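Q: What residues go here?
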């Protein structure tokens, strides 16, 4: 199975001497939803949500972040790596909406897409509709409930974080070239109740096939996001969105972002948290609980 078997359409446009790569999927002309993807993926993460979007009349739009298949923007000497990575990513999405003549769109953010979605709504609240976060990233610089490893990483100087990020990015690139083992490694973290559903047919294709497509675009720039993920909300100058327009879904068994961190985040945002009792982090991103596709009706 490949992109030709999906509704995903890939394209690009040029802005500020950079090629911006993006994709759309679902019902063209439907309710626009910008998707902010997790680490290890790209614009092709739309394969994970494509069928659910078609059922609900959603038009999914996803832009590769800087360094993910796009030319790397120059780091300005008077700002931090996190600041220019976030700001450039936000501006890319804004100009993509301009390119598609879309004045306002809802936002769907998956794990590491969270700070970029919050960055967009902070800068362009008038262009933001409803927001839905699934297994959302929580800054370890802000939350003591985050995993100790991430808390440690958030305290590292920028050069050490860059070194770690470069090695991580290389590993991601190699894993995408290899055949089945990477998928097997990823799905080994699934709860037992999720594994059977992962390998069963879901509509026209299995979740395994969708995951393969979502991870098929090789990119060396994933480490550029790490500076953003390890920064605090204050460092990123994020404004909290209107709680009436936002919903969060998280698993009580999330092994990457503990449920305690998600509860802290929801309190910071002033909203309730939908807690799933029997799902893993990956299982949530793969929408292996029917409550997650149902939540897309909110957008």
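A:
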């Amino acid at each position: 199975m490949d992109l030709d078997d999906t509704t995903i359409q890939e394209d690009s446009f040029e802005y500020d001497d950079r090629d911006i790569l993006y994709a759309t999927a679902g019902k063209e002309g439907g309710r626009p939803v910008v998707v902010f993807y997790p680490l290890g993926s790209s614009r092709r993460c739309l394969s994970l949500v494509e069928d659910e979007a078609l059922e609900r009349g959603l038009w999914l739009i996803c832009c590769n972040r800087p360094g993910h298949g796009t030319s790397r923007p120059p780091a300005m000497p008077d700002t931090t790596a996190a600041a220019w990575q976030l700001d450039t990513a936000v501006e890319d999405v804004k100009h993509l909406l301009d390119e598609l003549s879309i004045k306002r769109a809802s936002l769907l953010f998956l794990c590491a897409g969270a700070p970029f979605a919050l960055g967009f709504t902070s800068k362009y609240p008038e262009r933001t509709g409803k927001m839905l976060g699934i297994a959302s990233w929580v800054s370890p610089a802000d939350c003591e409930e985050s995993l100790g490893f991430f808390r440690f990483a958030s305290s590292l100087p920028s050069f050490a974080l860059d070194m770690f990020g470069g090695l991580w990015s290389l590993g991601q690139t190699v894993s995408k070239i290899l055949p089945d083992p990477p998928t097997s490694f990823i799905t080994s973290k699934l709860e037992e109740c999720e594994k059977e559903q992962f390998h069963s047919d879901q509509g026209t294709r299995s979740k395994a096939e969708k995951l393969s497509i979502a991870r098929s675009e090789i990119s060396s720039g994933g480490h550029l996001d790490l500076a953003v993920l390890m920064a605090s909300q204050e460092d990123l100058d994020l404004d909290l969105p209107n709680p009436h327009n936002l919903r969060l879904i998280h698993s009580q068994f999330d092994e990457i972002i503990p449920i305690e961190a998600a509860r802290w985040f929801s309190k910071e945002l002033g909203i309730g948290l939908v807690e799933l009792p029997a799902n893993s982090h990956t299982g949530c991103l793969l929408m292996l609980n029917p409550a997650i596709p149902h939540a897309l009706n909110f957008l």
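A: Context that may help when evaluating the design: Residues 158-177 form the longest helix (20 residues). The first strand starts at residue 9 and ends at 15.
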